[in-house]
Amino acid sequence: MTTTATDIGRAMFEPADRLDVDGWCSHLSENVHFRFGNAEPLDGRDAVRDAVSQFFATLKGLRHEIVSDWTVDDRVIQQLLVTYTRPDDSQVTIPAMNLLRIDGERIGEYLIYVDLAPLYAG
Questions:
Q1: Rounded to whole angstroms, how far apart are CA atoms 118 and 85?
Q2: Are 34 and 101 in contact (CB under 8 A)?
Q3: pTM: predicted TM-score of the whole model, two decimal places
Q4: Fold for the domain defined by 5-120
């Protein structure tokens, strides 16, 4: 069975939703270019792992729902609803968009467009 760009883009959410940063990072290329919202861009899987580990540590849970996704050449566009569970068990669902560039069997560029302000609002 051939793995498509869409399959690669979808597969990363299973470990992410378990807050398994190493499993999630296994879907990234070694030289991945990554940007989460308005944070500074990061280059390289190790730098991304460190940053995402810190972010996951602030959460009790995470769930991604793919509303729609599209593939154009080596790019995957994902429209998402992401439900974050805070340490106090309250939840907030936030719309987001991902733009991925697939590099072989991994993600070579990962851009997340989301406003996390509601996650940190009282």
A1: 12
A2: no
A3: 0.92
A4: Nuclear Transport Factor 2; Chain: A, (3.10.450)
